[in-house]
Amino acid sequence: MIIIGLTGSIGMGKSTTAQMFRDEGCPVFDADAAVHELYAKGGKAVPIIKAVFPDAIKDGAVDRSVLGRHMRSDALHLKVLESFIHPLVSESRAVFFDKHKKAKIVVMDVPLLFETGLDKGVHYIVVVTAPYDVQRERVLSREGMTAELFESLLSRQMPDAEKRRRANALIFTDKGLENAREQVQKIIRNLELEA
C-alpha cells in the first residue's frame, strides 16, 4: 500500500482535489470529516468538550463558532483541545486503514499534515496550491469569513512556500478543474508504476 499525504492551506482547493482522488478509485481518509463526526450529536468528543468548554455545546453537538472563539482567545485552549481530539482522530484513521488494507493507494487528506507530524507516516506528499490572491479571494467569499479571521487561520498553518518545498508533487488549482484532474491522474499513474 502506498500512502499519499494530501495537504494544502485553507482555500487552496484540497477538498475538491481529494474528491478527484476518490473519483479515480483511491480511498481517502478525510481528517476534517473525522473531526466533524466527533463534534456531531453523539460524537465521542462532545462529552469531553462539554467538560472543558460547556458553552460550546448546543443541542448535544459542538457549536464550532463558539469553540473557535475559545481557540482564538487563548493559545492554551487550542493545545488542550488538540490533546484529546488528535488521539480520537487517530482512532478513526486506524479504522480507515483496517477497512482499506488491500488498496494499492490510499490518501490521507490532512490540512495540518506537517504541523502534526503525520507527514512522517506517508510515502508520498502532494500539496495543493494556488497563488495567494486566488486563495484569499476564495476564502473571503465564504460565509462569515473576515480578512482578520483568514489571517489568523493562515498564521496557524505552515506557509504555502514551505509546504511546496517539502512536497513530492504539487497540484495547482488555479488553472481549472480539468487541469487539476489531469495532475491527479498523472500522480496515480506514476505511483502505480512504482508499486
Secondary structure elements and pairings:
Elements: E1 2-7, H1 14-23, E2 28-30, H2 31-39, H3 46-52, E3 57-58, E4 61-62, H4 64-73, H5 75-99, E5 105-109, E6 124-129, H6 132-140, H7 147-155, H8 160-166, E7 169-172, H9 177-194
Parallel strand pairs: 1-5, 1-6, 2-5, 6-7
Antiparallel strand pairs: 3-4
Task: Give a description of the structure.
This protein is 53% helix and 14% strand. It has 195 residues and is an alpha/beta fold. The protein has 2 domains: 1-27 and 104-195, P-loop containing nucleotide triphosphate hydrolases (Rossmann fold); 31-99, P-loop containing nucleotide triphosphate hydrolases (Rossmann fold, 3-Layer(aba) Sandwich). Strands 2-5-1-6-7 form a 5-stranded parallel β-sheet, sandwiched between helices. Strand 3 (57-58) and strand 4 (61-62) form a beta hairpin. The longest helix is centred in the middle third of the chain and has 25 residues, at 75-99. It is globular.
Brief account:
With 195 residues, the protein is α/β, with parallel strands linked by helices. It contains nine helices and seven strands; from the N terminus they run E-H-E-H-H-E-E-H-H-E-E-H-H-H-E-H. It is globular, with a radius of gyration of 17 Å.
